[in-house]
Amino acid sequence: MRVLSRLVAATAATAGLVFAASTPALASSSHVPSSPSARGGGVVFVQTDDPNGNSVVAYARAVDGSLSQRATYSTHGKGGVLTGSVVDHLASQGSLAYDARHRLLFAVNAGSNTISVFAVHGARLQLREVLASGGHFPVSVAIHDRLVYVLNALDGATVQGFAELGGFVFPIPVAHRALGLDPNATPQFTTTPGQVAFSPDGSRLLVTTKGNTSAIDVLRVGPFGVLSAPVVNSLPNAVPFALTFDAAQRLVVAEAGPNAGATFVLHRDGTITPIGSAATGGSATCWIVAANGRFYLSNAGSGTLSTITLDAAGRPTLAATTATDGGTIDAAATPDGRFLYVQAGANGVVDGFRVNGDGSLTSIGSVTVPNAVGGEGIVAI
């Protein structure tokens, strides 16, 4: 990591020759307490993905999980809309990502081909940088230690690496990899990649390709953030959209093709072996979030959440179905797993739920996010 830091420092000195960057100051639209968590609550950040001007809306989270809007922060970029999309304009997971170690929030500006980096002070954000994403139409961000990778969805898809140093983020020129997907595949919202994510140990980077090869690409993360050529794990007709990991480091995937949650073993060589699959009973099963060992999958076409449990061998079973507002898309759980917040893209709503001891969900109310119809990207801290 010391070698990586030296590389980043050298890159920072010449960043203007490689990528555009700016660090405008940004004031809050209202007074915001710096640490709502001190009162036993927390914060939820929601990205609007507005094509006329992307923003992040900050909500204070009370001890009962209810949300109250505190401020709206411009990303100094534009949201984007993939052709064919209705309730999920980015058709991705991880478009808003939080780095808890360095207290940084990353937002993609798909319409501007940039990412915005905010310093997080409770419910207050300070815009640190706006950086070129290294490709066309950024949709997802993955973070591990000091490394950050951005997935760009168009022009065949690319992944670009960045590194954090001293509270700022710098591009790593050698940490760039083209994925070679079909750039002309249509419709865009089903044939662009869905997510970039790290393996739990940070040694590999995973990309879901959805309908454009229907595969999970696994890339090894080498010295200086250099990425290997992808190991392509073909999953015919599965349309893998989003993924996460369980406590045993098994891969848990939302598959839009069969509308199912599927589990896999991820091997050191980048290959994956299937364990099992469970139908969600919903339509357009695309997003997945973990909370207290259970997995909640969003069914955009049904307006529901499906709860999946795993047995000791990692085999999934459908445990419950919970109604949401229309267009169920991206979701986030609080770090303690007590609350779950789900974006409903049809009307730009966030539905809140208390996660009970048995994994069942109890509604705790909803908020309408300004200018967020079809937008996605949510973080709970």
Give a quick rundown of the structure.
The protein is mostly beta strands and 381 residues long.
What do you see in this structure?
- By secondary structure, the protein is mainly beta.
- It has a single domain (2-29, 39-380), classed as 7 Propeller (Methylamine Dehydrogenase, Chain H), CATH 2.130.10.
- Helices cover 5% and strands 49% of the residues.
- It has three helices and 29 strands.
- It has helices spanning 2-13, 15-18, 188-191; strands spanning 21-22, 42-47, 55-61, 67-74, 96-99, 104-109, 114-121, 124-132, 138-144, 147-152, 158-165, 168-178, 195-198, 204-208, 215-220, 231-234, 240-245, 251-255, 260-266, 272-279, 285-291, 294-299, 304-310, 316-323, 328-333, 339-344, 349-355, 361-368, 378-380.
- The strands form seven sheets. Strands 1-8-7-6-5 form a five-stranded antiparallel beta sheet, with no helix packed on it.
- β14 (204-208) and β15 form a beta hairpin.
- The longest helix is centred in the N-terminal third of the chain and has 12 residues, at 2-13.
- The two termini are 27 Å apart.
- The model is unreliable at 8-38 (pLDDT under 50).
